[in-house]
Structure prediction request, 197 residues.
Amino acid sequence: MARPAEFDRSEVLNKAMEIFWRTGYIATSVTDLVHATNLKPGSLYGAFNSKRGLFLEVIDNYANRSLTRISECMEQSDSAIDAIAHFFSCMCKELENDELGKGCLMINTLLELATEDDDIRIKVTEYLNRIEHHFYVALENARLNGEIKPETDCNSLAKMLMTGIWGLRVMSTTRPDPAIYSGIVVHLLSSLERVRN
Prediction:
């Protein structure tokens, strides 16, 4: 019996992620993935079953990294409002450094596949909802701690912040002047300032 090929799964996922991120799921061929990962087709299929199986694992990997990064941002400050502002500051820098205009892999995937693949749509939507929930929990804690006004609708405010993220990520694919990002973020964060106690 042939011994299964050995490789660094994390490295393969990162390389596959880059090609999916640049060209999209549908336009990425198995040949593209073979070249990007330096694996033979048999090894790719043996490890991931299919292009779709590899893509689903890439989405999981990307989403979990995003969720970890957001959690770390939220832990940077005792103030929920300051923590959210810090997150958007970090996001601004990330967008400014995105010279290729890749946007967000999860949002790109929804825009490409929402009407094509229900399983992928549901998976990505669940991850995005978890990101929104981070904002909701932070805002609700801020409300309970008296940092923001007691009548604040934390659910709607969290959704507004997520709408801002969507807009910024999609806009980044057009490669605008980087100064535009910081201007938009100032307006987004002004909504938080208005609900401070």
Notes: The first helix runs from residue 9 to 23. The mean pLDDT is 91. Residues 2 and 22 are 34 Å apart (CA to CA).
